[in-house]
Amino acid sequence: MRIARFSIDGNVAFGAVEGDKPDELVVDIIKGSPYVADFELSGVKVPLSKVRLLPPVIGHKIVAFGRNYTEHAKELGSDVPDVPFAFFKPATSMIGSGDAITYPSFSEEVHHEAELAVVIGRMCREVPRERVKDVIFGFTCANDVTARDVQRREKQWARAKGFDSACPLGPWVETDIDLATANDLTIQCTVNGQQRQLGRTSEMVHSIEDLIVNITEAMTLLPGDVILTGTPAGVGPLNVGDEVAVTIEGIGTLTNKVIKRG
């Protein structure tokens, strides 16, 4: 099931996206929260074209893992970490598909990073490897937008990766992908229709299981929290006016334009 979060006529809701043709997609509004077991569909359906897609989660935190693809680490001149290397992006950095990435005033080199995002479905801590599949709600597309010059200049990545609009997510959460499949999906990024990144999640140094075991050793994850799993090689610059799209097999396409911060 594809779970979207959207606004229409000033109201915000979750809904199940139905249909196969892009111009015929509809959203069946969910009663309450999709994170509640046995949630109900209302039967009230709205054309997807009539709503504004929002980030598909209401997360408390975004845990991101860096240098998790060997070739990406090499292109940045970095070593591949022996253990997962985590950092945080604030919830205020999230935007939805169709929203604008605002170019930060303190950077002159902003890059795209296409990533598979894991959405947590239940409160969990110290998750054993064999139980990882039980805490996952679904998967979505992410763009770990990065002020690369600031990342190089500052030891902490809070500003480089945490500025407003630095975490596009969407277009929805796909809940029907199992863990084995998620560990081997095609992921790509285009800018103005030109391919920049192309890889497979099977190229990750540390698997989805590794990442969730690692972070839950340290902290509790809550429903709606997001895990970013790293980016394949091919990251590159974004400029004002560009349209960047992240497409992941079996999930969909996350599209955002870059604008100048007003």
TrEMBL record:
Keywords: Isomerase, Metal-binding
GO biological process terms held by the UniProt record: carboxylic acid metabolic process
Family annotation (InterPro entries): Fumarylacetoacetase-like_C, Fumarylacetoacetase_C_sf, Rv2993c-like_N
Isomerase keyword on record: yes
Every Rv2993c-like N-terminal domain range: 1-56
Residue span, Fumarylacetoacetase-like C-terminal domain: 61-258
Isomerase among keywords: yes
Entries under Gene3D superfamilies matching the protein: FAH (2.30.30.370), Fumarylacetoacetase-like, C-terminal domain (3.90.850.10)
GO molecular function: 5-carboxymethyl-2-hydroxymuconate delta-isomerase activity; acetylpyruvate hydrolase activity; metal ion binding
The EC number(s) this enzyme carries: 5.3.3.10
Name this protein carries in UniProt: 5-carboxymethyl-2-hydroxymuconate delta-isomerase
Upper taxonomic lineage: Bacteria, Bacillati, Actinomycetota, Actinomycetes, Kitasatosporales
